[in-house]
Amino acid sequence: MSWRPHVLMMSEITADGKLTLRRGASSKILMKYMAPETEILLHQTRADYDAIMVGSHTIKIDNSFLTVRKVPGKSPLRVIPNSRGDIPLESNVLKPDAPTLIAVSERATADRVALLRDRGVEVVTTGKEDVDLPLLMRILHDSYAVKKLMIEGGPTLNWHMLRDRLVDQIRLIHLPFIVGGSDTPSLVGGMHIEHEEDMIRLRLDRFYLCGTNLVTEYDVLYQGGT
After folding, report:
1. CATH superfamily name and code, 6-221
2. Tens digit of pLDDT per residue, the chain (226 long)?
3. What is the DSSP letter of 192?
4. 213 burial type by CB count under 10 A (0-12 exposed, 13-18 middle, 19+ buried)
5. CA atoms of 134 and 115, how far apart (whole Å)
6. Is 138 helix (H, G, I), strand (E, B) or coil?
7. Reduced to 3 states, what is the DSSP secondary structure of residue 110?
8. Where are the domains of the chain?
């Protein structure tokens, strides 16, 4: 793992494992029900990490700032995988309140890359059709001195990071609600697993109450190690 950052996936989920009320809804709707202590935990984690990564679809829906606001500390580098470089130019992550790195693929046009750089953010090209996440992890480690990365992603980014064996720990904030919906986004999306031996196994590390929210923390176990 010396070639990439240590990666923590952190998310709030309902009792039935959902991230939002429905497809296309902002996760901020549910996040407002987190206990104040849990909000502080989220921002303290951001302050403790070198970088934070969120997928471009989540940015388009939530338009998050991804900064440290509720505790003292420096905001982490914001990392947004965005193959086409088509993140909205009015996105809050393109504001100068914290550094931002947009990772694009070769599908991003020179005009889009120039527009992003005009916003003062850095752009790197990793991958031909889609962002090459393992290569991005290596670039973050080697060129940006990122030793610890947290993900606050949606189901697609979470799936790709787990599929590429790039996640070391998972921290879940449990919200005492059931929202249902067969197409409501859950923690991990992606392709169905056909065989039980392909399941990604977790080892419970610890659990505790943070305010009124249960928090569980897991180590991710990959066959053959990371």
Report:
1. Dihydrofolate Reductase, subunit A (3.40.430.10)
2. 689 999 999 999 999 999 999 998 999 899 999 999 999 999 999 999 999 999 999 999 999 999 999 999 999 999 999 999 999 999 999 999 999 999 999 999 999 999 999 999 999 999 999 999 999 999 999 999 999 999 998 999 999 999 999 999 999 999 999 999 999 999 999 888 888 888 999 999 999 999 999 999 999 998 765 5
3. P
4. buried
5. 26
6. helix
7. helix
8. 6-221
The model's pTM is 0.94
Q: Do you know the residue count of the chain? A: 226
* DSSP letters spanning 70-82: SSSSPPPEEEEE-
Question: Residue 115: which residues within 8 A CB-CB, separation 6 or more?
Answer: 89
Q: What is the pLDDT of residue 1?
A: 62
Reported in sequence order, the residue ranges of 34-191 that DSSP labels E, i.e. its strands, are: 51-53, 77-81, 100-104, 122-125, 148-151, 169-175
Helix (H, G, I), strand (E, B) or coil at 37: helix
Kind of pairing between the strands at 148-151 and 169-175: unpaired
Residues 6+ apart with CB under 8 A from 69: 43
Using a 10 angstrom Cβ sphere, with 0-12 exposed, 13-18 middle and 19 or more buried, the burial of residue 163 is: middle
User: If we measure between CA atoms, which residue out of 47, 50, 53, 82 comes closest to residue 67?
Assistant: 47
